[in-house]
Structure formats: C-alpha cells, structure tokens
Design goal:
There is one protein chain. It contains 1 helix and 13 strands, in the order αβββββββββββββ. The protein is mainly beta. It has one domain: Lipocalin (Beta Barrel), CATH 2.40.128.90. The protein has a 10-stranded antiparallel barrel with strand order 1-3-4-7-8-9-10-11-12-13. A two-stranded antiparallel ribbon has the order 5-6. The longest helix is centred in the first third of the chain and has 20 residues. It is elongated, with a radius of gyration of 21 Å.
Length: 258
C-alpha cells in the first residue's frame, strides 16, 4: 500500500472510532435488517469475442452486431447489521437481454461462421450476485462512510442462433470476483444521499468496477423511496475469448428498515 493511502486510511479509522463514541447515528440507520427492491432501466453496451482453440472470433458489438437493446430489469439488496457499523450485505440483479436482427456482416463466434443477411437471435440470461462485509469506519449524526470487502459473482448463459443455417452457439460465463470499495450515506432532514464504489483490477486479465448513487426520501425511520443511477463494468480476456461489457441506467425503488 502506498504511504499516503495508508496514512489516510489510519486517519479515517481514528476519526470514525472517535465519532462513533461521541455521536448517535440518524434514526433510519438504527436498524437490524434492511431490504431494498429496485427497478433497473438498464442499457447493455460493449463487445464480445469468442473463439475456439487458437482461433480468434470476431469482435462483436452487442448492440450493432447482435441487436441487444435496452431492458428494464430488477435488483434486490439485503443488509444485516450485526452491531452499529458492522454489516453483512447481499444482492442479486437479474440479467435478461435479447437481440433479433439480420446480420449486417459475416462474423465468427465459437466454431461457427454466421453469414451476413441471415437472421441472428441472441439471448443473454442469468444473474449477478454480490456478497460483502461492510465496516463503517466513520459514523456521525449526519451518516456514515464504510469499507466494503467481498465478492461479486456473474452467472450468465449466452446463446446465438442463426435460423437459416441453422446453427447454434452456447457459451456460459461463471466468474467469482473478489472486490473492495467504499459505501456511504449522508442525511439532510428527510432526504438522504447515498453511494458506493467497488471493484478490482486483475492485471492484464481484466477489471471489474461498480458505481451506484441514490437519493432517497424518508417517509419515516423505516420506509424510504429512492431514485439514482448505476454503472457496472466488466472487462476480461483469456485468449481466444474477450469480454468488455457495461451495464448502466437509472434506478428507482423502495427501502424498508426493521
């Protein structure tokens, strides 16, 4: 760890410990269990490349070459607060995207050459899971700032079908990814602003990061509604395959604290 980062981390820990002893968290943060359901108006962009053996497939744009469009999906989050500032978090986001178009060019995916002009139908279905431990090293009467340590897990099945040939290519992506990050929330009366950023760089093999920000209106200490924006980026390469995908869009939902 670089020395400036180490110093800042230690300072944050000290400030957080002192603040926890002298101040009281906002009432909405004094919960045992928190659950949240959100609608995610998502847009999937990026490139896919899938070869066979030493052969490299065509670098495909998921929108231009496969016709995958915007999709409304959902996500759920559960947080168990073991004691103030110590939380276990888990979430699931449903992934379900489809494309259907006449191929604008011939391309290679897996062992198959898809011919220009033929109808190509694509399906990407699965789930995106997260599991994390959160330690709030800063706790104040205005809110908190915490450290996240955990893992993200992508489980997606992809199918590309060319009806006129007919051919079918199936590919499965299952990847656990350890991550670290920060999460926080600040309260301004009945309104709160929250956000988090997490990720990991795995050298030349790729990287994953997620940014999520939400503004909430609290009708009580237990019930809130919110809207925000979310971005998930996943990049990976292992010859002859490559993936570079981004999932982003507006969110809205309801949060219940017990």
């Amino acid at each position: 760890m670089h020395r400036p980062s180490f110093v800042l981390t230690v300072a944050g820990i000290c400030l957080g410990t002192t603040g926890a002893a002298q101040t009281r968290l906002p009432f909405p943060e004094q919960y045992r269990l928190r659950v949240e359901y959100r609608q995610f108006h998502s847009k999937l962009t990026g490139q896919l490349q899938h070869g066979f053996g030493e052969a490299a497939g065509t670098d495909l744009d998921v929108r231009g070459d496969l016709g995958i469009g915007d999709k409304k999906t959902w996500s759920g989050l559960a947080v168990l607060q073991l004691k103030p500032g110590h939380k276990l978090r888990g979430s699931i986001t449903r992934l379900d995207y489809d494309g259907d178009l006449a191929a604008g060019r011939s391309f290679v995916y897996g062992e198959t050459t898809f011919v220009a002009g033929n109808r190509v139908v694509t399906s990407l279905k699965g789930n995106y899971f997260t599991g994390e431990y959160e330690w709030d090293f800063v706790q104040r009467n205005w809110g908190f700032l915490g450290l996240l340590i955990g893992a993200k897990f992508v489980d997606v099945d992809g199918v590309i079908v060319a009806e006129a040939q007919p051919v079918r290519e199936v590919e499965t992506l299952r990847a656990p990814i350890p991550v670290a990050g920060l999460a926080g929330r600040a309260y301004f009366g009945s309104v709160s602003l929250g956000g988090e950023v997490s990720g990991l760089v795995i050298g030349e093999r790729g990287q994953v990061y997620e940014i999520d920000g939400t503004a909430r209106i609290h009708f009580s200490d237990r019930l809130a509604v919110g809207a925000g924006y979310r971005l998930l980026s996943l990049t990976g390469e292992k010859a002859p395959d490559r993936v570079d995908l981004r999932l982003q869009g507006w969110t809205w939902g309801v949060e219940l604290s017990l």
